[in-house]
Write a structure and sequence with these properties.
The complex is a heterodimer of chains A (about 375) and B (about 600). With about 375 residues, chain A is α+β, with helices and mostly antiparallel strands. Chain A contains 9 helices and 16 strands. Chain A has helices at about 20-25, 50, 55-85, 100-125, 145-160, 170-180, 180-195, 255-265, 280-285; strands at about 90-95, 95-100, 135, 210, 215, 225, 240-245, 265-270, 290-295, 305, 310-315, 320-325, 330, 340, 345, 350-355. In chain A, a hairpin with a 5-residue loop joins strand 15 and strand 16 (about 350-355). In chain A, helix 3 runs antiparallel to helix 4. With about 600 residues, chain B is mainly alpha-helical. Chain B has a domain at about 60-315 and about 340-390: Cytochrome Bc1 Complex, Chain C (Up-down Bundle), CATH 1.20.810. Chain B is built from 22 helices and 8 strands. Chain B is globular. The chains are: A alpha+beta (about 375), B mainly alpha (about 600). Strand 3 (about 135) of chain A pairs antiparallel with strand 4 of chain B, so a sheet runs across the interface.
């Protein structure tokens, strides 16, 4: 930054001022003035009270000692609270409300214990330790040209002794071996981490009975209330009500229950059949009772919010909004596909049952889901 | 500056130490003992010289240099409290029935991870305070890392030779948010499980490989029982290991390159002005660790964080309204909320879910790549290949500062978009309108922020020039003997002036000739043209610092209206002229 600066700082204000600034700008020969101002150097150090007055220094010493003393009190308080404050008691703190007494007491004592040390040390440094600025010179980071040349020479000369350059067989076989060897560990990791999805993502418990080998046999299943695990009579579903539903058997599962619930969850709502604008939706409903997958087609959150005035379903995660009157098409938000509908009917006892599995994969999109 | 003025001992403050000699009293018992231990170690390591050097190392002082320290200390608090938590946390999805002391969850089926987190909160004495310290420290870590990055960016501290540390810092910042996400997903409560559910959806949106990737990470269908122990090993071993290694490199490089400093009197590119490690920084920085820890403890005592007992155990079917991730994941969540659904395509019977992939998989890599690459980009555009140890005042780099503010604004749009549902409820506004506002805002607000910031910077630079040229208006009107009037300007001295004039004048790069002497087109002409255009964009509006010539030109004598009088009778104004010149700190004869 300093190369352009001349040594003529004494000439900054020439004795014969031109009478007009513009004239000066035109006439002042640039050689007379440095191109840039000169760094004035460190300002004079101003001593602190504690540097000049032993009384002030004593005062600072006492303040620091008091802070350290406070820390000791905090530590003792922490140990005392550990034994004395009841485990599940609560205490009213103005401005905050009821708080767990144990957490409050231990936390505050810990904070005092730590802050006493911290504030004490910083106050000590600021009042009693030297505050005269020290100047340390920087040295160029780069090595000298000789050292750099020596490195290059060493790498080349010594490297040449390996004969890598003139034995291509060695070079390429080594490259091959080094490139391939990570495959061993990667293979283990990728192979061992998880199994293949096959058609898992496209099937749910509504598909019926699992035969093994990715094959299912359809059996109608009753729609069960979640979490009560009771079947639902068509007559129980009144307009404006909404039921959280799982297929029969899922809530009794001992293994894989969460995985099954995560795919099979369904929302059951009743609409006035004349409000339903999609003929397919009406066909798949039972007397205006419609069942839709509860798993959002965006990233899979449960679509939990039903506005029964407008018949809109809203996903609380990213606000995709689905129109239940029109086959759950997306009317707002980042989702693209409608929620899949589950075709339902009633069995001989009047309970709602599935009439066929979901026709498409539920939940978030994936490459091979088919569309 | 000529080399004659560089030696440190010519500065006024150094003069105070002239003649100081280290005191050499007879060694006390304590000193002999210390010497004995140090000798034992040095016999075996030879570390005496290096340790002495480190103890005397000088660090410059500024409040903004504390931000990196806050990050470092909150990371240490995280490590410490995290070790405590591992003694009680059970990283398992195994099913269990709750029989602890929290009555509302009695008899409920849950995972061992969730049960053990409840136990840490209710059964382990002081367990809750450790848990809250861990979570608050993690939040503070990410806040401090971000603030530290902004400080480094806006002051140009990333310039040569510190590009490596900028890249390391960028990676650290990315790791910090991944580490945070892995950590808050571990308790397996309803909120964190919903976050994991969304993450599984993100993975599924990967073109071609999505379902395979998701099944690999979760070992089968979501949620499975593998994700909790896997996240645990990532959270307590893998990422902390990389974090600590990179952080160590970060600190070693800072020590090696010596810290940057703000421009000011006595500070040059060739020196570091500040305080030595022993005793000042040992006490200040050491004490500051306790202050940061103490403030985290205070927050953990007073402010509840992540009350997982209120959410219940994870179940893929229910959900709570207003599901929000921790703040540092907000920007990614917000990006998902404002990406329109029509970005999902169905080519040839396959599903390409860009409405998810852009925000969930693309945003973070793009954001961090741009961040990491910025120093190299700026260096190419400005053509500045020198080392920089003096920081820029943000106003003196208007385009960089503007770009930084534009980036922050874009980030802010993403982050606040993640709160669109909360805003809709609190402000009684339509969530659709709020979402549309953010969608438009993403494209409108960052350029606006750039323009406004750049204008503010240029204005501040002009004010600096004005201050140097005319100093402060005193409000005192002086009437001259001849009946003229002028306002007296109070002066600034050379120490006040220096920070306003120390920076370099800049100009756009000239476009090199596209052809050589023989009329052959240069192979790099296209990239050089781009470079010249970008350089023009960076520097075309530059307001350069006042030069001594300009200052002298601004103070030829009394005010302009007095000039005719001067011609008649210059002697009368000598006094005024002198005062005036003194006042603004104009160089003397």
């Amino acid at each position: 930054m300093t190369t352009g600066m001349s040594d003529h700082s004494a000439d900054i204000a020439p004795a014969d001022h031109p009478s007009h600034p513009a004239e000066l700008a035109r006439t002042a020969p640039t050689g007379q003035l440095p191109a840039r101002f000169e760094n004035p150097g460190l300002p004079t150090h101003i001593p602190r009270m504690a540097d000049l007055d032993e009384k002030a220094a004593r005062r600072a010493e006492k303040q620091v000692a008091a802070l350290f003393g406070l820390s000791i009190l905090g530590t003792l308080g922490f140990i005392a609270s550990y034994y004395l404050v009841t485990e599940h008691g609560s205490v009213f703190v103005p401005g905050i409300g009821l708080m767990r007494a144990e957490n409050l007491a231990l936390g505050l004592c810990l904070a005092v214990s730590l802050l006493g040390i911290g504030l004490g040390a910083v106050h000590w440094a600021k009042t009693l330790m030297p505050d005269t600025e020290v100047v340390e010179l920087r040295h160029p980071l780069r090595s000298s040209d000789e050292d750099r040349q020596a490195l290059v020479t060493t790498l080349r000369e010594e490297g040449r002794k390996s004969q890598l350059g003139r034995r291509p067989l060695l070079k390429y076989s080594m490259l091959g071996a080094m490139t391939l060897f990570p495959a061993t560990l990667t293979w283990q990791l990728v192979g061992g981490l998880g199994r293949l999805p096959h058609n898992d993502l496209s099937t749910t418990e509504w598909n019926g009975r699992y035969l093994g080998g990715g094959k299912w046999q359809f059996v109608p299943k009753r729609l069960m209330r979640d979490p009560e695990n009771t079947p639902i009579k068509a007559s129980d579903v009144v307009i404006g009500s909404v039921f959280h539903v799982q297929p029969e058997g899922v809530l009794d599962m001992t293994e894989g229950k969460l995985e099954a619930k995560g795919k099979a969850a369904v929302l059951l709502m009743r609409l006035n059949p004349s409000d339903i604008r999609s003929t397919k939706e009406l066909d798949w409903s039972h007397d205006g009772i419609v069942a839709y997958s509860k798993i959002c087609t965006h990233v899979g959150c449960p679509v939990g919010l039903y506005e029964h005035q407008t018949h809109h379903l809203l996903c609380p995660c990213h606000q995709s909004t689905f129109d239940v009157t029109n086959d759950c098409h997306v009317i707002f938000g980042p989702a693209n596909r409608p929620l899949p509908q589950l075709k339902i009917t009633v069995d001989s006892e009047g309970y709602l049952i599935s009439a066929q599995p979901f026709e498409e994969a539920v939940g978030p999109s994936f490459w091979e889901r088919g569309s | 500056m000529s080399t004659a003025t560089t030696p440190a001992h010519q500065r006024p403050a150094d003069a105070l130490r002239d003649g100081d000699t280290a005191a050499r009293p007879a060694p006390s018992t304590g000193a002999r003992r210390l010497g004995g231990v140090a000798g034992w170690v040095d016999d075996r390591t030879g570390a005496a010289k290096g340790v002495t050097y480190l103890m005397k190392k000088v660090f410059p002082d500024h409040w903004s240099f504390m931000l990196g320290e806050v990050a470092m200390y909150s990371m240490i608090v995280c490590l410490l409290s995290g070790v405590f938590l591992t003694f009680w946390f059970v990283p398992s999805a195994g099913e269990t029935i709750y029989h602890g002391s929290y009555a509302p969850l009695q008899g409920i089926q849950m995972s061992e991870a969730y049960r053990s987190t409840l136990d840490i909160s209710f059964e382990v004495r002081g367990g809750l305070i450790i848990r809250q310290i861990h979570h608050w420290a993690a939040l503070m870590f990410v806040v401090a890392v971000s603030a530290h990055m902004f400080r480094v960016f806006f002051t140009g501290a990333f310039r040569k030779p510190r590009e490596i540390n900028w890249v390391i810092g960028t990676i650290l910042s990315l790791l910090a948010i991944v580490e945070g996400f892995a950590g808050y997903s571990l308790p397996d409560d309803l909120l964190s499980g919903t976050g994991l559910r969304a993450m599984e959806g993100f993975m599924q949106s990967t073109p071609v490989l999505g379902s395979y990737l998701a099944y690999m990470v979760f070992d089968g269908p979501f949620p499975g029982s593998a994700i909790i122990p896997r996240l645990y090993s990532v959270h307590v071993l893998l990422i902390p290991g990389i974090l600590i290694a990179l952080f160590t490199a970060h600190i070693v490089i800072v020590a090696l390159q010596k810290h940057t400093q703000y421009p000011g009197p006595g500070k040059t590119e060739q020196n570091v002005v500040g305080f030595p490690v022993l005793p000042v920084y040992a006490a200040k920085a050491g004490g500051f660790f306790f202050i940061v820890f103490g403030i985290i403890a205070l927050m953990s005592a007073l402010v509840q964080i992540n009350p997982i007992w209120g959410y219940g155990p994870y179940d893929p079917s229910p959900v709570t309204a207003g599901s929000q991730p921790d703040w540092y994941m907000g920007f990614a969540d917000g990006a998902l909320r404002i990406t329109p659904g029509w970005l999902e395509f169905h080519p040839f019977g396959y599903t390409l879910s860009l409405n998810v992939a852009l925000g969930a998989l693309g945003l973070i890599p793009v954001m961090y790549t741009i961040t990491g690459a910025y120093p190299f980009l700026e260096r190419w555009v400005t053509g500045d290949t020198r080392e920089h140890h003096l920081l820029d005042r943000p106003r003196n780099a208007p385009v960089r500062t503007g770009l930084g503010m534009a980036a922050m604004t874009a980030y802010g749009v993403f982050m606040f978009a993640a709160g669109n549902d909360i805003m809709a409820v609190l402000l009684h506004m339509s969530i659709n309108d709020i979402t549309h506002f953010f969608q438009v805002g993403l494209f409108v607000l960052p350029p606006l922020a750039f323009w406004v910031t750049k204008r503010i910077c240029l204005s501040l630079q002009r004010r600096d020039r004005d201050m140097v040229l005319h100093a402060r208006e005193s409000g005192t009107i002086i009437r001259t003997a001849h009946g003229g009037y002028f306002e007296r300007h109070d002066g600034i001295d050379e120490f006040e002036r220096w920070p306003l004039v120390q920076h370099e004048a800049v100009a756009p790069l000239e476009l090199p000739a596209g052809t050589d002497a023989n009329g052959v087109a240069s192979p790099t002409a296209r990239s050089e043209r781009l470079r010249a255009r970008l350089s023009h964009f960076y520097f075309k509006d530059a307001v350069n610092p006042v030069t001594p010539a300009e200052l002298a030109a601004a103070h030829p004598g009394p005010h302009e209206e007095e000039v005719p009088a001067l011609e008649h009778d210059a002697d009368h104004f000598v006094g005024i002229e002198q005062d005036h010149a003194d006042g603004v700190g104009a160089p003397r004869h």
